[in-house]
Amino acid sequence: MPKENRKQIILQSLASLLEERNLSKVTTALLAEKSSITEAALYRHFPSKRSIYLELFSFCDETIISKCAEIKKSKESAEQNAKNLFMFCILFIEKNKGFARLLSREALSANEQNVVDATNQFYERLELNFKQILQKDSDSLLSQPGISSHLLITSLEGTISRYIRSKFKEKPSSYIENIWTLLRISLFK
Fold first, then answer.
1. 36 in the Ramachandran plot: left (φ > 0), alpha (ψ -120 to 50) or beta?
2. Which CATH number is correct for 1-46, 3.40.1000, 1.10.260, 2.20.28, 1.10.10?
3. Got the DSSP string for the chain?
4. CB neighbours of 188 closer than 8 A, spacing ≥ 6?
5. 95-131 pLDDT, tens digit each
6. Cα(61)–Cα(146) distance, rounded to whole angstroms?
7. Exposure pattern of 151-161 as b/e (b: 16+ CB <10 Å)?
8. Does domain 53-187 sit in CATH 3.20.20.70?
9. Contact partners, residue 128, CB within 8 Å, separation at least 6
10. Separation CA 9–CA 5 (nearest Å)
11. How far apart are CA 15 and CA 7, in angstroms?
């Protein structure tokens, strides 16, 4: 099997384990078993467990941040672009439950501090993207673009946490339009 395919299988296995397991029990032995390879083979593809988490997180980060760039190029209103980005993030997490645990930092231990740092930077970049979207029509806002983008990120993180607390049973897509309606009332004139 080609090396890239094996790496992909390992990353998919980790995402799957993050969805279904008590996170403190995701060991390299368990990950190797789920990936149908030996632990030694696991370490041939990744130098450490931390690097596996970081690569999985990088995929999530790249997917969402590239969507930000796409949305920012859109000719839609600032309100519609903010909504599109917010909805994309929520639906992406709903479909990729393992990423929810990464973005909540719940899956990460002290040994994965670099992934915690990457997650914090991700939220800062995402907030900046929301701010840039909102600045295009700041006259339509009730507050400053920075404060408005902060509210969006706080709501996003809260929705992710709630989804995890429900053990992935209460899908955000079932209530996200209502959340957006409240956010819209809070953000826009």
1. left
2. 1.10.10
3. --HHHHHHHHHHHHHHHHHHS-GGG--HHHHHHHHTS-HHHHHHH-SSHHHHHHHHHHHHHHHHHHHHHHHHT--S-HHHHHHHHHHHHHHHHHH-HHHHHHHTTTT--GGGHHHHHHHHHHHHHHHHHHHHHHHTTGGGBSS-HHHHHHHHHHHHHHHHHHHHHTTT-S-GGGTHHHHHHHHHHHHB-
4. 79, 140, 141, 142
5. 999 999 999 988 888 778 888 999 999 999 999 999 9
6. 21
7. ebbebbeebbe
8. no
9. 149
10. 6
11. 12
Cβ pair 149, 124 in contact under 8 A: no
Q: Where do we find the tokens 């909102």?
A: 134
Token pair for 76: 């839609």
Task: Decide: residue 33, CB within 10 A, 0-12 exposed, 13-18 middle, 19+ buried.
Answer: middle
Q: Of how many residues is the chain composed?
A: 189
Give 32-51 pLDDT, tens digit per residue: 999 999 999 999 999 998 89
- Give residue for tokens 């009332």: 185
Name the pTM for this structure: 0.91
Structure-block tokens of residue 87: 């909805």
Q: Where are the domains of the chain?
A: 1-46, 53-187
Using only the alpha carbons of the chain, give its radius of gyration. Answer: 18
